[in-house]
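Course assignment 3, question 2. Fill in each field.
Student: A.L.
Task: Predict the tertiary structure for the chain below.
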Amino acid sequence: MRIEMNGTRSNITARIGFPESAPVEGYFASIACLHEHGFLRDGGDYAHALTKAGFTVVMTDERPFLDVCATPCGLFADGVGASAEEMFSALASEGFEGMVRDSRLGRSWYLSGGRSIMIRDGLRMCA
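Answer field:
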């Protein structure tokens, strides 16, 4: 997705898959993060709070995943910052897996195995 921010072009792409099964401890880490940043107001609906935080829930035949809203808002209003990184960590701890890329910053975040790892362009990640 291409977005305009302060006259500069930016690309933020994301595909973060929901866990195969609900986390044993529940979605409390991401709920706490949404609450801390003020997105859980107005009824406390989790899906609505994710949308206010700047995500879009995409339903597919396989399984749902999170993308970033076409119009930057919430955690992504100014690109991917510290608050968004905090949310990535919370989601990863709950079993969400996928990646987010902000080409303006030249960074990618990988959510897998309960962790969120940030890689800068030009660096290689080996397993």
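Instructor remarks: The longest strand covers residues 8-17. The mean pLDDT is 85.
Grade: pending
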